[in-house]
Write a structure and sequence with these properties.
Strand content: 15-25%
Strand order of the largest sheet: 1-6-7-8
Helix content: 25-40%
Distance between the termini: 34 Å
Radius of gyration: 22 Å
Shape: flat
Largest sheet: 4 strands, mixed
Number of helices: 11
Length: 394
């Protein structure tokens, strides 16, 4: 790789992509339970395929849950309402295979029940958080715009600006970096499901590509990042009628790089969707992003990656690693001490600080868990900047 010039790509998918449908159903189940039962334990996995949805996993709750109703409502909101798509919310089968959380795990997660008095981590594992100052959301630019394109595809479909679009779709954005800074968009890829071509309605082949270029790509990618060499690839197979669960099986947790930093930041391997916040796969990853974002927002570094490691049943993380990729303005050792001093790192403290026992998770399931301007995404706040600046004098 030439350090002075290189290309980096990230992809995103729409809420109608089968894997994202599975994520959204899993999080809709979590939301419906945690709204009424703060002490629930939810690990909900979803599989979607032709004509069926399967929910499996471990759920412990004090409430009665109407799983088919949650599944069908979620699919309807996504947009699979037409039987001609060969998958729709009314006709699909909904199957469940659910068990309670293991008692052996529960004693380690429930405060005062295990070997340790504090609420321990729900599992062992490593979690990462990342931030960079190359966008106003402090997210890497490739995934930032890939998400925006997919979200715009959904908006154009739901608002009937492009009424022939169907829910399934993907995007990919390639950014050219010069001297480690984003300089221009090198290419944009979009694949969008659509109705069967109908010459009488005037949207065949080239017309669809022109519409997506005008209404989606050009409305998302700033003009100063586009030039004559920027390439666009739109529905390059020429046809994308069969999509969604009819064309591809979808499963919870198969888009973890889409969910996070598009490959620019590292990932610990555990997915987020369908998991209540006692699972550090989710809650500690949110805290790691919160820490990294506040470090970058305060000017302590231009880039920051946080890694934390946990052991099941134990509250205190076994490791904390701060990496600023050489962009730090003060010694990294001092940043690490600040993190330990002012940020909550134990599961119970994280849940309280970020107010995670709320039905907020369905909104996270598509278009990224990070870099979102939503008051419910408390891990995106930069409310620790003042304290960081006061302690460092920056």
């Amino acid at each position: 790789m030439n350090p002075d010039r290189y290309l980096f790509s990230s992809e995103s998918v729409t809420e109608g992509h089968p894997d994202k449908m599975a994520d959204k159903i899993s999080d809709a189940v979590l939301d419906s339970i945690i709204a009424k039962d703060k002490n629930c334990r939810v690990a909900c996995e979803t599989l979607v395929n032709t004509g069926m949805v399967l929910i499996a996993g471990e759920i412990t709750t004090s409430i009665i849950v109407n799983y088919p109703e949650i599944v069908r409502k979620t699919i309807e909101e996504i947009g699979y309402c037409d039987p001609t798509m060969r998958f729709d919310f009314e006709s699909c089968a909904v199957l469940t295979s659910l068990d309670p959380q293991s008692k052996d795990i529960s004693i380690g997660v429930t405060e005062g029940k295990g070997r340790h008095k504090e609420q321990g981590a729900g599992d062992q594992g490593i979690m990462f958080g990342f931030a960079t100052n190359e966008t106003d959301t402090l997210m890497p630019m490739p995934i930032h715009y890939a998400h925006k394109i997919c979200k715009r595809l959904a908006e154009a479909r739901k608002r009937k600006e492009l009424d022939y679009l169907r829910p399934d779709g993907k995007s990919q954005v390639c950014i050219e970096y010069r001297n480690k800074k984003p300089a221009r968009v090198d290419s944009v890829i979009v694949a969008s499901q659509h109705d069967p071509f109908d010459k009488s309605k005037g949207y065949i082949g080239e017309k669809l590509r022109e519409d997506i270029k005008e209404y989606v790509i050009d409305s998302v990618i700033p003009e100063d990042l586009r030039d004559k060499k920027t390439k666009t690839y739109i529905n390059e197979t020429g046809l994308f009628v069969a999509g969604g669960p009819f064309a591809d099986c979808g499963m919870t947790g198969r888009k973890i790089i889409v969910d996070t930093y598009g490959g620019m930041g590292r990932h610990g391997g555990g997915c987020f969707s369908g998991k209540d916040p006692s699972k550090v796969d989710r809650s500690a990853s949110y805290m790691a992003r919160y820490i990294a974002k506040n470090i970058v927002a305060s000017g302590l570094a231009d880039k920051c990656e946080i890694q934390m490691g946990y052991v099941i049943g134990v509250a205190k993380p076994v490791s904390l690693f701060v990496d600023t990729m050489g962009t730090n303005k003060i010694p990294v050792a001092k940043i690490e001490r600040l993190v330990k001093d002012i940020f909550p790192l134990k599961p119970g403290e994280i849940i309280k600080h970020l107010d995670l026992l709320r039905p907020i998770y369905s909104a996270t399931a598509a278009y990224g868990h990070f870099g979102r301007d939503d008051e419910d995404f408390t891990w995106e706040k930069t409310d620790m900047v003042d304290e960081l600046e006061d302690r460092t004098g920056l």
